[in-house]
């Protein structure tokens, strides 16, 4: 089973610095990790991620890729290795396609946990689902959302003892929340002292009514006007430098479906919506490519998204 070896740390670093070597996760910059246990789920961090698919599936796919270490030798051996690697990739991708997956929760860091919980419950109508303190690792988690964790996409807030500010960076964009009446929601948020950064109105280049707000740490939330939905916490928007590469990564590594794309040349951006089902019923990733921008500042505030992938991990055990 996959194990991430804990090391002492006062901060839970972004997994965008992960790399996998021989099935063992490590960090690119020597950042120490708090323990994550993944008995029934996969996690990914998109920001700047270029993890090769076979290395990622190498969580315990070494049994599939043993020939990988035999690249030195005759051309015949090299051909056998390439064929074996191709077969391994095909097998891994078939596992991903067959099981049922969904986005479980998104993890990010905040400077004042109680302040953020108050904002999310009073202004955004979320429920505090659970809270846990890990004093030996010097952090506290709080899980919030619009329904139980076993059936809804939820937020996992992390407070690291003594750290009250983080750099959100430019790669993380915003979260999306579906509401039936954007204008009324904005008025409620204003009454509670919330910060509205974009008043209600049609999205640029479209007709959907939206608004933007900021939480106390500066994370942005897009309010989208929709009918009733089982998944109000509906989007995580990330900016990417190569849209085609990112789409390919999520399709192959996580079995996500490209739901739609929209190019807006007037405002010089293209978006791709990816996920495990229709946008009106499931949480999805919104990948945004801004013309000519190939790199973003990743900051240290946004952490990762967990994806439920039970059957895949059982196959790898």
UniProtKB/TrEMBL annotation:
GO terms for molecular function: lactoylglutathione lyase activity; metal ion binding. Keywords: Lyase, Metal-binding, Repeat, Zinc. It catalyses: (R)-S-lactoylglutathione = methylglyoxal + glutathione. SUPFAM superfamilies: Glyoxalase/Bleomycin resistance protein/Dihydroxybiphenyl dioxygenase. The keyword Transferase does not apply. It holds the Pfam family Glyoxalase. Residues 102-226, 232-317 form the VOC domain. Binds 1 zinc ion per subunit. In the homodimer, two zinc ions are bound between subunits. Its EC number is 4.4.1.5. Gene3D superfamilies: 2,3-Dihydroxybiphenyl 1,2-Dioxygenase, domain 1. The keyword Lyase applies. The active site is at 222 (proton donor/acceptor). Zn(2+) binds at residues 156, 174, 222. Pathway: Secondary metabolite metabolism; methylglyoxal degradation; (R)-lactate from methylglyoxal: step 1/2. Its cofactor is Zn(2+). Catalyzes the conversion of hemimercaptal, formed from methylglyoxal and glutathione, to S-lactoylglutathione. Belongs to the glyoxalase I family. This is Lactoylglutathione lyase.
């Amino acid at each position: 089973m996959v194990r991430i070896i804990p090391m002492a740390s006062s901060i839970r670093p972004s997994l965008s610095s992960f790399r996998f070597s021989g099935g063992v996760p490590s960090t690119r910059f020597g950042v120490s990790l708090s323990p994550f246990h993944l008995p029934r789920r996969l996690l990914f961090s998109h920001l700047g991620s270029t993890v090769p698919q076979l290395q990622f599936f190498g969580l315990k796919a070494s049994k599939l890729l043993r020939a990988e270490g035999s690249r030195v030798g005759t051309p015949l051996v090299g051909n056998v290795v390439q064929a074996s690697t191709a077969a391994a990739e095909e097998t891994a991708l078939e596992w991903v396609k067959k099981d049922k997956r969904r986005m479980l929760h998104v993890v990010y860091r905040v400077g004042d946990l109680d302040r953020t919980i108050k904002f999310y419950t009073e202004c955004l109508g979320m429920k505090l689902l659970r809270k846990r303190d890990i004093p030996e690792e010097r952090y506290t988690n709080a899980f919030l959302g619009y329904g139980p964790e076993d059936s809804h996409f939820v937020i996992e807030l992390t407070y690291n003892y003594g750290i009250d500010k983080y750099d959100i960076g430019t790669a993380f964009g915003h979260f999306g929340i579906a509401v039936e009446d954007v204008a009324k929601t904005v008025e409620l948020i204003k009454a509670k002292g919330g910060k509205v950064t974009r008043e209600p109105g049609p999205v640029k280049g479209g007709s959907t009514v939206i608004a933007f707000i900021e939480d106390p740490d500066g994370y942005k939330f897009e309010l989208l006007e929709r009918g009733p939905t089982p998944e109000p916490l509906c989007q995580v928007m990330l900016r990417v430098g190569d849209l085609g590469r990112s789409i390919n990564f999520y399709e192959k590594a996580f079995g996500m479906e490209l739901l739609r794309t929209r190019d807006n040349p007037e405002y010089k951006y293209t978006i791709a919506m990816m996920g495990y089902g229709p946008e009106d019923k499931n949480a999805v990733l919104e990948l945004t490519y801004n013309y000519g921008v190939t790199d973003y500042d990743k900051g240290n505030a946004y952490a990762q998204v967990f994806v439920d992938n039970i059957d895949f991990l059982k196959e790898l055990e």
